Amino acid sequence: MTEQLPALQVVIPLLIAPVIFLLNHARTAWLAGVAVSWVSLLISILLLMQVLESGPIQYEFGGWEPPWGIAYNVDKLNAFVLLIVSGIAAVIFPFSWQSIQREIPAKLHVLFYTALLLCFAGLLGMTITGDAFNLFVLLEISSLATYTLISLGKDRRSLTAAFQYLVMGTIGSTFILIGVGLLYMLTGTLNMADLAVRLDDLQDSSRTLQAAFAFLVVGIGLKLAMFPLHLWLPGAYSTAPSVVSAFLAATATKVAVYALLRFLFTVFGADFTYDLMHVDYLFVPLAVISILFASLVAVFQSGLKRMLAYSSVAQIGYMLLGIGLANEHGLTATLLHLFNHALMKGALFLAVAMIFFRTGGSSMRYLAGLGQQMPWTMAAFVIGGLSLIGVPLTVGFISKWYLILASIERGWWPITAVILIASLIAVVYVWRVVEMAYFKQRPADLPAVKEAPLGLLIPTWILVLANLWFGINATMTAGIAQSTAKILLGGGA
Q1: How many CB atoms lie within 10 A of CB 299?
Q2: How far, in Å, are 49, 159, 257, 369 from residue 476 at the CA level?
Q3: If exposure means fewest CB atoms within 10 Å of the residue's CB, which of 76, 114, 141, 208 is most exposed?
Q4: HEC per residue, the chain
Q5: Residue in 288, 398, 262 with CA at minimum distance from that of residue 333
Q6: Predicted TM-score (pTM) of this structure
Q7: Residue 93 and residue 420: Cα distance in Å, rounded?
């Protein structure tokens, strides 16, 4: 059975999704989703342990050896991302049942869990597959499910946001498909490891290869909300059901960053990426603008979800900056931030979901006086906010520390200043929430509320405590990220 774990990681949620849709029973759908997410987390842990002990795993579907058949390849990089996606899902699914009672009509609950499982399966598949076209197919499964999830929001604007994301996502998918098609035209293969070998002889002379590189960077950049291709993200995150915002913010963009890393370093190779295509000339300026611009825009938002959405655009900028710094510390920071940002943004969006659950809104005015009435909820938000700022003893500090080391190593002191300035701006928009919750009286037109139920508090505080645990003891995460960065920069898979 252990030999089948790579396939089961994707097959289980992919098969259970249509089953729960046919059964058409909401409680059963939720229980099935919880069970699938916990099994997936267990599989991810087992795969990561096996990779750390014995090296990369290759699973061949139907016994067809690559490049003829589809293969799933598990190495340190995607085993780490699988842990992120399945870990967040294992927290989100238990949380979701009570949360959606207030935000999604009962007749749509089965559709919600079906779409969430399909999205989950697509993200897992994108992470584990070793086939470029298979990655595109799984991306489409995840994207189509995501459009559905966003459209289920109570706000009518969620339909507009879902449609906008559909249009932008379709453009991104088309770019990715063109890029993969050009690679296939050049090499006659879609297996990523085989692509890397065959492209090695073409790197100095092929303009088609350069075009494929450009199409893939733009297409994946649209999916991960790279500035200025981020316009779909604020609307999607702010109008989707709260639990959907939490899941997407913590997983979807991380998998897209992983896909970018996989193409840049495994398929094209670090030498082609930096020396011939000079991707650092693109990523560093865009990352700096993204970090400063999105952080400033977040300060002026009146809604919590929209504020956190623009914060996510800035955090994606940090990840791209790590790639653009083109050294081991920078790439380590990017890989670490995949994990750390999932923890902090997952905790923050779940805290917002609890605020919405009790108050019926997530704009700033609903926060007044909540520090006393919902102390555990607001404490969770504050700790998540401290992590977002990068305060020591939180995961956010670890990521920014490695970024600062990378910028100092390159001698780019202005980049160091940008990181510190953005952290100060984060203090401003986090403080706005603290001020409203702890230093403002609750308006007379807003009724008093009580603390969120344990079914919502416990999953949220699991992520909050993880923010502190992996901020105090980052040995495992930093070790995996650093060793993976060395492999990627050395051209290994």
Answers
A1: 16
A2: 12, 41, 21, 39
A3: 208
A4: CHHHHHHHHHHHHHHHHHHHHHHCCHHHHHHHHHHHHHHHHHHHHHHHHHHHHHCCEEEEHHHCCCCCCCEEEECHHHHHHHHHHHHHHHHHHHHHHHHHHHHCCHHHHHHHHHHHHHHHHHHHHHHHECEHHHHHHHHHHHHHHHHHHHHCCCCCHHHHHHHHHHHHHHHHHHHHHHHHHHHHHHHCCCEHHHHHHHHCCCCCCCHHHHHHHHHHHHHHHHHCCCCCCCCHHHHHHHHCCHHHHHHHHHHHHHHHHHHHHHHHHHHCCHHHHHHHCCHHHHHHHHHHHHHHHHHHHHHCCCEHHHHHHHHHHHHHHHHHHHHHCCCHHHHHHHHHHHHHHHHHHHHHHHHHHHHHHHHCCCEHHHHCCHHHHCHHHHHHHHHHHHHHHCCCCCHHHHHHHHHHHHHHHHCCHHHHHHHHHHHHHHHHHHHHHHHHHHHCCCCCCCCCCCCCCHHHHHHHHHHHHHHHHHHHCCHHHHHHHHHHHHHHHCCCC
A5: 398
A6: 0.90
A7: 36
Q: Could you tell me the CA-to-CA distances from 51 to 38, 40, 125 in Å, in that order?
A: 20, 16, 18
Q: What is the pLDDT of residues 441-491, one digit of tens each?
A: 877 777 778 888 888 999 999 999 999 999 998 888 888 898 889 888 874
Question: 131 forms bridges with which residues in the sheet?
Answer: 191
What pLDDT does residue 204 have? 66
- What tokens appear for 194 in the block? 């085989």
Q: Helix 109-128 and helix 132-151: axis angle, to 10°?
A: 160
End-to-end Cα spacing for the chain: 25
Q: Cα separation of 180 and 170, whole Å?
A: 15
CA distance 68 to 223: 28
Q: What's phi and psi for 123, nearest 5 deg? A: -65, -40
140: nearest Cα among 95, 180, 83, 88? 180
CA distances from 371 to 263, 283, 380, 403, 456 (A): 46, 40, 11, 33, 17
Q: What is the mean pLDDT of residues 259-276?
A: 87
Tell me which residue has tokens 């075009």. Answer: 211
- pLDDT-derived band at 53 (thresholds 50, 70, 90) equals confident
Other Cβ atoms within 10 Å of 228 Cβ, number: 12
Could you state, in order of their start, the residue ranges of all structural domains in the chain?
278-493
CB 95 within 8 A of CB 243: yes
Q: What is the pLDDT of residues 108-119, one digit of tens each?
A: 899 999 999 999
Summarize pLDDT for 367-422 with one digit per residue, the tens. Answer: 888 888 889 999 999 999 999 898 999 998 999 999 999 999 888 899 999 999 99
